[in-house]
Specification:
The chain is mostly beta strands and 286 residues long. It folds into two domains: 8-39 and 184-281, TonB (TolA/TonB C-terminal domain, 2-Layer Sandwich); 44-180, no CATH class. It is 12% helix and 35% strand. A hairpin with a 2-residue loop joins strand 7 and strand 8.
Length: 286
């Protein structure tokens, strides 16, 4: 770890959806239970003559009255996502991220949304979409029993959500499609049901970018990656962005990881996992 004259920097990694986290020791892989055949990636459709768009199901978010908190943070956030055949959002990402508070709240809102799924000639299917979310909120100070205080962002109005290729979204539709698209890799397996999780063999610390260091910017970046049958990362891509140059640093670190590959019936197989790369600022003690 390098030493800085200002706030210290820590970058860490946690893998999600694969039955383990990386720390001092790797957790035990998921024990095999039942052999299965490879599950091909679900096909993703665009809205068209035979494909209907998903419909957002109503939901109310907790709010506080405007003027009862400080530091108003309003903004309109553009996102890309896929709504799967069960009406759940997948691959939610901010398009052209800046790392703002409204972006983080919009990600939380869209990720918690539920939909009436889109259909292909009446059958539910995964449908690619874009969204614009209008966020209005501000910060309140919370104090715990020990007297510690934290600043919490709260909504002052219900978020306004618009889905689909609106005029304002056309400029980034191609990039949104690239973010939301699932990689098509023949023979890709899912962890579980007889397929063990890959086990990390090394830990590469993600470096802070100069821009993030200068702005004292931190957060969590999610990277989707395929661990192939040789334990090497492939197709690493950001699915939850931070901006300020940290996304590129996260992918750079993930591409240097090495794993004991996932196993099925004693044979190495490729699987997809999600890696959580943590960039953390801390104050140096005197």
């Amino acid at each position: 770890m390098k030493s800085w004259s200002g706030p210290g920097l820590v970058a860490g990694m946690v893998c999600l959806g694969a039955g383990w986290a990386l720390g001092q020791e790797a957790a035990q892989a998921t024990p095999p239970s039942q052999a299965t055949t490879p599950t091909p990636p679900a096909k993703i459709y665009d809205v068209g003559p035979d494909v209907t768009a998903p419909e957002l199901l109503p939901r109310q978010w907790d709010m506080i009255a405007p003027g009862t908190c400080k530091e108003p943070k309003d903004g309109v956030v553009s996102l890309a996502l896929v709504v799967d055949a069960e009406g759940a959002p997948q691959n939610v990402s901010v398009v052209s991220p800046l790392g703002t508070t409204p972006e983080k709240m919009a990600l939380r809102i869209i990720s918690a949304d539920r939909f009436k799924p889109g259909t292909l000639r009446g059958d539910p299917v995964a449908v690619r979409s874009t969204a614009e979310v209008s966020i209005k909120g501000c910060f309140v100070t919370k104090t715990d029993d020990a007297g510690n205080t934290t600043e919490v962002f709260r909504l002052t109005a219900q978020p306004e959500q618009e889905f689909g290729a609106t005029a304002a979204q056309k400029e980034f539709s191609e990039r949104a499609a690239a973010i939301a698209a699932q990689p098509q890799i023949p023979g890709l397996f899912k962890v579980g049901n007889g397929v063990s999780a890959p086990v990390p063999l090394n830990y590469i610390e993600a470096e802070f970018s100069e821009e993030a260091r200068r702005k004292h910017f931190d957060g969590v970046c999610l990277v989707s990656v395929v661990v192939d049958a040789e334990g090497k990362p492939r197709n690493a891509r950001v699915i939850r962005a931070l901006g300020a140059g940290l996304d590129e640093k996260a992918v750079e670190a993930v591409n240097k990881y090495r794993f004991r590959p996932a196993m099925k019936d004693g044979v190495p197989v490729p699987v997809m996992i999600t890696v959580q790369v943590n960039f953390k600022l801390y104050e140096k003690s005197n």
